[in-house]
Structures are given as structure tokens and as C-alpha cells.
Amino acid sequence: MFEQTFKNIDDVLWKEAGCATELDYTEQTSWILFLKYLDDLERANEQKAELHGKKFTYIIDKKHRWSTWAAPKKKDGSFDHDNAKTGDDLIDFVNRDLFPYLQGFRTRAEGSDTIEYKIGEIFSEIKNRFQSGYSLRDALELMDSLSFGSQDQKHELSHIYEAKLKNMGNAGRNGGEYYTPRPLIRAMIQVINPKIGERIYDGACGSAGFLCEAFDYLRAKASSTKDIRTLQEKTFFGKEKKSLAYVIAIMNMILHGIEAPNVIHANTLAENISDIQDKDRFDVVLANPPFGGKERPEIQQNFPIKTGETAFLFLQHFIKSLKAGGRAAIVIKNTFLSNSDNASVALRKELLENCNLFTVLDMPGGTFQGAGVKTVVLFFEKGAPTRKIWFYKCDPGRNLGKTNPLNDDDLKDFVALQAKFRDSENSWTVDAKSVDPTTFDLSVKNPNKVEEAALRDPKDIIAEMAALDAESAEILASIGAIL
After folding, report:
1. Which DSSP string do the residues of 96-109 spell out, in sequence order?
2. What are the φ and ψ backbone dihedral angles of 158, each rounded to 5 degrees?
3. For the segment 160-185, what is each residue's pLDDT rounded down to a tens digit?
4. Residue 442's closest CA among 288, 322, 320, 332?
5. How far apart are CA 311 and CA 137, in angstroms?
6. Beta strands in 16-125 (DSSP E)
7. Nearest C-alpha neighbor of 140 from the set 182, 83, 90
8. How far apart are CA 65 and CA 44, in angstroms?
9. What is the CATH number assigned to the segment(s) 164-451?
10. Does pLDDT of 116 surpass 90?
11. Above 70 in pLDDT, residue 413?
12. Domain 2-149, what fold?
């Protein structure tokens, strides 16, 4: 039922002039979904308070409550069409009254870790893109048919929301920035094996895939209400720079069962890493930081190793953000292992001398759909030098693509062998002493398998050429804009 409702909402958005892409659809679905969720949560909390004979105060005042403007009901529970705003009246109310009221929570909230602050932050960051009040009315009535009553319902909704995020990632534009394939995230978490009571951090959290999957992993191990409270309040921390991703991250975490997510809307790299103190550090870092995106010189001043490559700045931030003995699993471009520029060499030196880089997972092309780059995952522990590095080359035996994505079985062998650092046809061990002390080159070359020149599918070659052409056009357009 939920799936059909979301499809129907997408159909409404498709006809809406203000919404052009899967990104827009997800953004608009998210703010409506958030307000419906909030209304269900408030009503459930009111019932709990009544049971205990306590007075309950709503966060949202009566005029701006979902049940007043979005879905007014008659006494018999049926929809009250006579009192439901529609057309221009509805658009006017949402743009001139509702959004400004909700934005105001940011200044009224007691602290940034409150649900009130999150409401203010979300509605300061997104716009209502509906131009037709009739379309919006249809979307609101469809959303009202969903219920967040039980954990099962939330779980089902979270699966559908994840599917939307996946579609958004596949739709191109910059949707792929927000989406890391979940089988890869799950394998990374299994290797890092976080424990209840540890603080987990992603400073480039996108749609919060790492935090949500880590929550699911740990919730299965929770054995008391104290454990659940620890997971809810003191375990997951994220930062996200982009407005839409921030909103999606909050919604995704809420749907997974984290009621007031500790996600901050901020540019992680704007913080000088020498200001990070012990109290700010984490036990576990899980991340897929954005790469490329040349950072401005003033941002680079926050880091000892100066570079315009965003991912390398994030790597420095993550190492600094780990406690001594803390573990990290971080996705990065595979060229990081062999690049000869000063920043790459200095960063590899840092990883080998001040961290134990115990595993490198080499992922095949096509892991990230729409991105022409190949990636590796670095697994390391802070505070002791590297002695041995265990490499694993993931070879699913097929070309990965939109219709044939990475799955959990593709990484089963990696997780099983990694537990004992076993060498195999796809895995091998390198002694850190054998790494060149001038270049610290860590190129992935499998000594246990003769590499055959793979015959690539012509479709893959054409797709890669198209992606490179699009990239070239974008670069030329940006140069043209400067001239």
C-alpha cells in the first residue's frame, strides 16, 4: 500500500511545473512526509501523556498543525473537504504562513540537538516547489493515508524511502553524491564491527546511509531500554553541507527509528582541524566523502596537508576526529593509492606511520552508478603504525550497472576472509616494510591472479565516453562563465 501511495505522489509531482527531477520529487516528498510524521509523533506522545495523567504541550501550534491545514477531519474521522484549503489559498498559506512559522523554530529552539531546531533548520533550507494548490492538495491527501503508528510501518516506509534515494542516485545530476550502495556500507560496518556505547561519525553524511545502516546493525544487538536510549541519543553523529541532502538525512534517520537525529547542517571542512579536541572525537568513522570539488584556499588553510581535493581534506579531518584506538572505513578514489602529488604522498605517509591501515578493499568499476571513477575502501585504526596491509580485490564476475548493481553476495567472500586476513585468489598481504619510503605507493596489484585484459561491453565504453563528454562540456561551460 505504501509503495503505491508514493508512486501516486510521484505522479502528482510529475505534472507539477516546479518539479523537474527525481531530486525535486524526493525533496518535496520529504518535507510533506516530515510534517505528517511529526503530527503522528505528537499525537502518540499526547496519548502517552494522558495515560500517565500528564499534560502534553504540542511543538506545533494548532493553526499550523497537520490536522488543521493539511488534513482536517470531520467528527466521524472522514476527510473534511469543506474546511481543507486548496488552490491559490493553499499555496499562499504554505509559502507565506506555514514555512515562515516553521523556519522560526531555529531561533526559538533551546539548542541545536532538539527536534524544534531540526524543524527550523529543515524549513529554512528547502522551498515549496508546488505551484498548483490542487496538485499540493492531492499530494497531502495521499500522504495523510500513510501511518507511522508502529515500528513495522516505519520500517516499511524506510525501505520505500531508501528506494527513492537509490533512484535519485541513479537519476544523475548530483543525486549520486548522496547515495552509496547499501551492500558496500553493510560490508564496511561488518568489518569495523561497532559496539553499543561507541560514538559513530560521518562528516559527509549525504542521505545518512552509513548512520542508518549502523543503527540497524546495532539495534539488532540491543538488549535493554538503556541500549536503545544510547542508540537514540548518544551514538550517531553527522554533518552535511548541502541543504537537500541534510533534509533527506534527517528524514531517513527518522524513518529508521532515530527520533531526533544528531545531524548538523554545516561545512565540515570549514572547521580548523587543530581545534578538534579530545571531547569532540569519535570511536568509529564511516564515510564516503565527496571527491573532486576543488576547495578554496581559505578552506585549505584549516589543514596541515594543503590540497584542493575535497576527499583528501576529509581524510585529514577524519583521522583527526578519531580517538586513539578508533576505527575508520572510508571510501576514496583508487588513484589515491598511487598518485605522486605531494598531498597524496604526505597522506599515505600519515596513514602508514600514525595509523594501522589494516585493510584495503578494491572495488570494481560500476560500483557507483553514474560515476566513471573506481574506488577503494581504506580500513584503519588510529594510534599505531601499519605493519601489514591486507588487500582484497572485489571481482563480482560481471559488469556492474544500473540493471545489475552490487549486492550483498558480491562482498560475502571479502567479509569472511577479512575476519582472519586470509590470502586467496582475490586477497593478499603486503608488509609495510616493503612499501617504498619515498613514494609510499600502495597500488593494488594482485600477485595471486594473472590479470587478463577484459573485453569490455561496447555499451559500457559508450556510456563512459558519454559521461566524459558531459564532464568536458560542464568544465568548458564553467570556463566560459568566467571569461
Report:
1. IIIHHHHHTHHHHS
2. -65, -35
3. 887 777 776 655 445 445 578 899 99
4. 332
5. 43
6. none
7. 90
8. 14
9. 3.40.50.150
10. no
11. yes
12. Ferritin (1.20.1260)
